[in-house]
Amino acid sequence: MHQQTRLPGHAPHSPADTALDAVERTALLTAALRAAESRRPDRIYDDPYAAALCGDLGPQLLAEIRAVTFPQDAERTLPSTPDYNAIRTRLFDDLLQDAAHRQGLRQVVLAPAGMDSRAYRLDWPSGVRYFEVDRPAVLAYKRGRLAGLATPRADHHAVAVDLTSPDWESRLTAAGYDPAAPSVWLLEGLLYYIPEADAHRMLGRVAALMAPGSRIVADIVNRAALTLPGMRGLLEVFEGWGCPWLFGEDEPERLFARHGFDVTATQPGEGAADYGRWPDPVPPRAAGPVRRVFFVHGAKR
Asked: Considering the entire predicted model, what is its pTM?
């Protein structure tokens, strides 16, 4: 998740990291994964800012994930986090770009924003207003890391507020977001880190800010991914970091429909969610119990 999990007691590695203890580990992990992908000769996207954003801690976190995902003395049972993250990043890039370029949506909202650099590394049409919502310490750390390195390629607005706040919506609208105008929202790496009731509340609050025809993009896991023995290694790492997986949904289409969205849910390796990178068989939706990840995208009714 990108907004609640803090780094207790972590000593900064450099003066630039003075706010690092307030930046959640999963955001730094994601940046480290994107930096690693960008170094691959067969990369499916390029994030030139990820290495700066992940700092010194990000590669350490990635090493922990690699150690449990690819054990030296046993067969891999966990999903390949590097391949999953690469596919998710590229697919969400494509969906956001399609919403802005082909569908003409001129408001983009990342909630939470974490260490994402899409505002800086992707081409945005003229007139796009780009909103990054996250805790003040996260955005301050990010601003320091990108200072002198990157310039937003859209009309960029950093909205420094915790998504658990009762009034984050008013802070977003005060920054220039217009709920009556079409928008595209990205909820990346969020829903499985919050309890089910909070996930419903979040989707309801987001839906209330979206005009009909607006687009939503998100990811979510199924319920079995939270309990299967073969997932324990990965789940224990996140639990040890203080950000356990808490919510899974077997029918994401139904979940989003409850909040006014018509969506498609795609598993890595299916259709466009592959890019030649998914290494595992894709289980049919009727098969179970198996771990699943869903990439969700669709429109507000």
From this structure: 0.93
